[in-house]
Write a structure and sequence with these properties.
The chain is built from 1 helix and 2 strands. The chain has 145 residues and is an alpha+beta fold. The protein has 2 domains: 1-32; 34-129, no CATH class. The protein has a two-stranded antiparallel ribbon with strand order 1-2. Mean pLDDT is 79; it is low at 24-29.
């Protein structure tokens, strides 16, 4: 019996603390309403676009990296040291050079990768402005006929 009373007292204390903190934070207040304003000021509601980033998963085909070796022909000439121009060269000669390349080999499997997406979302912002700074649209006079 004492355990039940103790548990009930603990629950009641938790509820009291939760309600006090909720009312202090304004959680129980009405949402989507303009905040209170002091005299001499006015609250202006403005809609702005905000960049929101989120990360999503995406399935892509898996590839394996593979090193491939190949021969490439590299023609060159040897200049005659006596003349210095190409008319008297003793060539052309051809040499083979070893080239190392990395290629992507497609695999039949899929893998999951993450991707970051940025979206522009409209957000309502409230600004406190003195009453003298509020922009008013001037009324244009009626055209005379």
């Amino acid at each position: 019996m004492k355990q039940k009373l103790l548990a009930l007292a603990a629950v009641m204390a938790g509820v009291v603390f939760a309600l006090q903190s909720a009312s202090a934070d304004g959680i129980l207040k009405r949402h989507h309403a303009k905040p209170a304003c002091e005299p001499g000021y006015q609250i202006i509601e403005e809609t702005v676009l905000k960049d929101v980033t989120r990360t999503v998963c995406k399935m892509v085909p898996e590839t394996k990296k593979k090193w491939v070796y190949d021969w490439v022909s590299d023609p060159f000439c040897i200049r005659d040291t006596k003349h210095g121009d190409c008319q008297n060269c003793s060539g052309p000669y051809c040499r083979k050079q070893l080239v190392k390349r990395q290629i992507d080999v497609p695999c039949p499997t899929m893998k999951c990768v993450t991707e970051t997406i940025t979206e522009r979302v409209p957000v309502i912002v409230y600004k406190k402005v003195p009453c003298t700074e509020i922009e008013t649209i001037p009324v244009q006079p009626m055209p005379k006929k």
